[in-house]
Amino acid sequence: MRHFISVGAQYYKGTFIMKYLVAIMLCFFFFPLLTKAEERAVKPNIVLIMADDLGYGDLSCYGSVNCQTPNLDRLAAKGMRFTDFHSSGTVCSPTRAGLLTGRYQQRAGIDGVVYADPQKNRHHGLQKNEVTLGQCLQAAGYRTGMFGKWHLGYQRQYNPTFRGFQKFVGYVSGNVDYFAHLDGTGVFDWWHNAKLNRSEQGYVTHLITDHAVDFIRQQKDEPFFIYIAHEAVHYPYQGPNDKPIRKEGVGDIKSAKRKDVTNAYREMNTEMDRGIGKVMSVLDELELTENTFVFFLSDNGANNKGSNGKLRGFKGSVWEGGHRVPGIAFWPGHIPAGSVCDETVISIDLMPTILELAQTTVPASHQLDGVSLINLLTKQQRLKPRKIFWDYRERYAVRQGSWKLVLNQNRQTPVELFDLQTDLSETNNLAKQNPEKVQQMKRALNLWKKEMNQTATSQPEKK
């Protein structure tokens, strides 16, 4: 009996030890899987979509009568539509530099267009000391892809694959022929990662969409960040059924330009909207929608071929028409469906917002100029009061609350002060009635300019 008890005790002891060892082995086996699943549940996928030269009045959910954009309208209806959203620049390159660094483009070293013309600044680009959104998210475990327009450097060293994007398909210039894939100087400009790809043919808007959809399918089991930078609705004005208007080594051919720009513009906008619909459809198909944050914006206001609604000015202007643009945020279960936000927001706010979503940040020594919008998006909490600045070709604007100071945009009246709450179209100059306000905002602008000049990333000299 005593022997039986002893053997039994050893059996149960052995069984306990075996179960313990098995439990440890299972933990080691499943722990990485559980960690990855938990990480995926916590870290949302990020889809950042930028249109090119799309004006405040160019979407039907923003009042367009020329363009119908049902997919973007649906995105706004299920998410948040901003009425006071701004690009940090009034032209292409600066806004893109600000978007991907979270800093004023003046600080990031790209305060103007990076031109294709080698006689200008084709040698400039986003320098290596600038920390990009793609780099931060890649370090945080995201798969990163970019499709479309780069416009932050032509030389190979500036290629997106060296600036935080593991996959890149698109062009590095300001625009290409939608069919011939030639830039404005007639140089071929269609890349797969850091190599030119002459074999891929097709309408640029469709190609951008197709590659974006493929990337989502390939990365569906990992957290991903995808930057979709559409060419639409930027010149050259070509719909999906048009023909090339550029030849290699020549550039634009005037006789081939489409005459009915209004219809071409609408077709270009329609194809971009359809492409965004395909992106949202694949997220639904793969059951990724609930865990994906989507943001749509434009890089600046429309030129005179598009619509900025009731806003004054066009692309390149520091009046509202140059930088107040559509902004739509979507994140099911977190952002209230159908919400409208009148808070003043700028595109450099998107990087700190996305970094907070991804639970990561930039190095402590790297200053961000934007602020996170998470509490605004999910809790509708107001942002703290702040001043926002614009500077393009020595034309300046300062925003403080509803007040906006504009300098040097109008030769006849170089100092303009507007109350946007009552005068969104910037027609009633209140500068003479409010000299103290003008001086206070000028002082703030001068301090900002001084800081930007002292901290700006420098560009290389032309060789």
UniProtKB/TrEMBL annotation:
InterPro entries registered for this protein in UniProt: Alkaline_phosphatase_core_sf, Sulfatase, Sulfatase_N
Keywords, comma-separated and alphabetical: Hydrolase, Membrane, Transmembrane, Transmembrane helix
Domain Sulfatase N-terminal: 44-359
GO MF: arylsulfatase activity
Positions of transmembrane segments: 16-34
Enzyme Commission number: 3.1.6.1
Enzyme class: hydrolase
Top-level taxon of origin: Bacteria
Similarity section: Belongs to the sulfatase family.
Name assigned to this protein: Arylsulfatase
Native source organism of the sequence: Gimesia aquarii
